[in-house]
Amino acid sequence: MIADVFQPNEFPSPRRIAAMREYIKKTWKTLYRSHAHILEAAKDEKIGHTDEQRWPIYISAMEDKNRVEAEFKSVLSSEEFQQLEIMSLPSEIDQITEHGLLYLPGDYVVPGGRFNEMYGWDSYFIVLGLLRDGEIELAKSQVDQLIYQIAHYGTILNANRSYLLSRSQPPFLTPMILAVYEHTQDKDWLRSLLGAVESHYYYWIVPPHLNQSTGLSRYCALGEGPAPEVLVSETDAQGRTHYDRIREYYRRFEVMAYDVSLYYNKETDTLTDLFYKGDRSMRESGFDPSNRFGPFNIDIIHYAPVCLNALLYRMEQDIAKILNILGNPQLAESWCDRAQNRQQLIDKFLWDEPSGLYLDYNFRTNERRLYEFATTFYPLWVGLASEKQAQRVVENLELFEAPGGLLTSSHVTGNQWDAPFGWAPLNLIAVEGLYRYGYRTEGDRIGGKFINLVTQEFEKTGTLLEKYDVLSCSSEVSNEIVFGYNTNEIGFGWTNGSILELLAQSKKM
Predict the structure, then answer these.
(1) Contacts with 167 (C-beta within 8 Å, 6 or more apart), sequence order
(2) Does the annotation count 466 as an active-site position?
């Protein structure tokens, strides 16, 4: 493939954009999973399951095992079906001795690469892409699988693997539902989802996710001990796990951002139970890892974060919108009141007037953490910022803007969710937030830079990727990442969707 010369300030030509669009359209088929793909979906390199002869598939206790087996038999050969073992989940998660895929009844799209299962917040951006590409039924099915998870597994999961039953991901459910509804206008479908939507909402607004001292919510995963996928897959060339590297960091460096004794026992050189609670909660946030909540985000359990509470405000507003569509304005008003109350709490605890940024609030120390992070654009995206607050955030664009788009943070830490890296979802959210408040020039500029970078790297690699170095305008990121996994996964679901959405909203395309 011959690439045009890369010019950071020039929008890619229609020919170059068309080639990338064609790739994305084809890629949905690669990332598509149905019952016929169950053996492919069961493989999980994150915990070393790639060459097994038998694959455990877990179903909830509410499911009919015979019916599920019949489903698989109808699309698999006898030999293929013999490679599956359909098992009901035990009553307690810690009773699972062999991890496996969690059953979902319908079709869905996975992110790509090592992420060979359905993810929570990835699904929102994937749904946007599917809708832009005319894949309406598949987009609807993606939402339906999330609703199924709420009913059968308790919440929308980080992903549908048994070792991820104890944590969720950022709540983008209602924007997904409304995006699909815009295309289908199916009120019966919309009405059928309300119970699950409210159930997912309450997951986030009661303890342990509710911080009662602020009235705001936090990330707080329910599991204990090391995350299984980290122990197996996040190792370096010396064979050290992510946790080994963190212990070395604690031995060598002084930590000022939090009380490290809560998380690390220096005498025994061991990580504490609370460390693993923080580590799992950091993964529930989707930002795994960065130093936003101190080194490795471990102190996240003591914060009311901007992103989560902005999303819950959006959820409250969206539920009100759904109720109005369904003809219940009185009940809708009560949800608007909830949103208004959350907006006031966000203004009180998360808006930082001196910096002109939305910052995460540490309710243990009663202080906002001055760590510039791209989630400061979430309140613009959901529309809770005042015109003055939006203007102040926009005045801080120089902290984040880079040649290839928007930096995740202003700090270089060796973590993938910090500088110099940029991610498609955060670029899309920021651009849409800027557009919402009338900053069209700034939004077009940032969106154009990111589209240009992704186009350039597509022409070099032949694929769209999970993340990018937006400072050096490259997808070669492995040598810059020290903690967590350092690969750049191909596919890639949320980059596909975000790029299609940015293109659709750009004046140039």
Answers:
(1) 157, 158, 221, 222, 223, 280, 281, 283, 284
(2) yes
User: Which residue in 44, 135, 144, 288 is the catalytic one?
Assistant: 288
Q: Which of 20, 83, 76, 75 is nearest to 51 (CA)?
A: 83
Taking only the tens of pLDDT, the chain with its 509 residues reads: 233 334 455 789 999 999 999 999 999 999 999 999 999 999 898 887 766 678 999 999 999 999 999 999 999 999 999 999 999 999 888 889 889 999 999 999 999 999 999 999 999 999 999 999 999 999 999 999 999 999 999 999 999 999 999 999 999 999 999 999 999 999 999 999 999 999 999 999 999 999 999 999 999 999 899 999 888 877 777 888 889 999 999 999 999 999 999 999 999 999 999 999 999 999 999 999 999 999 999 999 999 999 999 999 999 999 999 999 999 999 999 999 999 999 999 999 999 999 999 999 999 999 999 999 999 999 999 999 999 999 999 999 999 999 999 999 999 999 999 999 999 999 999 999 999 999 999 999 999 999 999 999 999 999 999 999 999 999 999 999 988 888 999 999 999 999 999 999 986 55
| Candidates 466, 469, 480, 501; catalytic one | 466
Q: Tell me, yes or no, if 186 is annotated catalytic.
A: no
Separation between Cα atoms, residue 333 and residue 323, nearest integer Å: 9
